[in-house]
Design goal:
Layout lengths: L3 E6 L16 H10 L3 E4 L4 H11 L5 E3 L4 E5 L11 E3 L2 E5 L4 H15 L3 E3 L5 H8 L3 H8 L5 E5 L5 H10 L3 E4 L4 E4 L4 H12 L3 E6 L5 H5 L3 E6 L14 E6 H14 L6
Parallel strand pairs: 1-2, 1-11, 2-3, 11-12, 12-13
Antiparallel strand pairs: 3-4, 4-6, 5-6, 7-8, 8-10, 9-10
Amino acid sequence: MIGWTVFSDLHGTLLDRETQDSGPALPALKALRRSGTPLVLVSSKSLPDMLAVRRRLGHRGAFIFENGGGVALRAGSPAGRPAGFKAEGRLWIRMFGPSRENLLGAIESLRRRTGARIAEVGRMPLKELAARTGFSLERAERCRQRRCSAPFFLDSPRDLPAVRRTAGEMGFKVAHGGRFYHLLGSADKGTAAKAVLGLLGGARSAALGDAQTDIPLLRAVDRPYLVQQAPGVWEPIRVKGLRRVPAPGPQGFRLAVEDLLEGSDSYR
């Protein structure tokens, strides 16, 4: 029987939206390990941020960072390094997103063409970023270390339509995550998930998410699960075959994984 590969968003799904705690999900994480089911972590977080989360969770599998801009695998597979991946320490990494230089140039063009006040995270003073996000200085520094995306603050939400439209004209797109807007290239979480699945040779796939930025990921898999954003509240998302799990964050993650591994398919 062909096994499953599970992709999971972090913020608001595997990790609590407010506390970043994964406690309620731990039984499900253990069940995935016992069953030999690969878990691929997916996030808008930077590579250093993802490495910190993986250490905390004891995760050793593949992961997707910066909204699908990059994929990282643990180095040393007997099959060898896949085409397109470059060795970086103990990881093999493939980039799908545009370069930081191109993104920063695009941010400048957006400011000039729209008149919007845009504060790009990677160029913000560290203490200012920590104050605006509530991050520690260490976490704020990890957050700034971007390779293929440009998270930013937008002073006035009224500027968002013009910023989105202009970014599209320039060949970029704007996504809204939990704390930031993100200027991205054409790749997304779904693009990266399909690349990972292509390396696995026919595994069935499931994905867990909670927000609009997870739609490409949910559409890329065989069985998509949507956890609540708050008790009783799901993001208004339309994806074929979507399973709506009746709990938020890591509690929803646990229910979805149990549903998948037990084969009950209770949330259609």
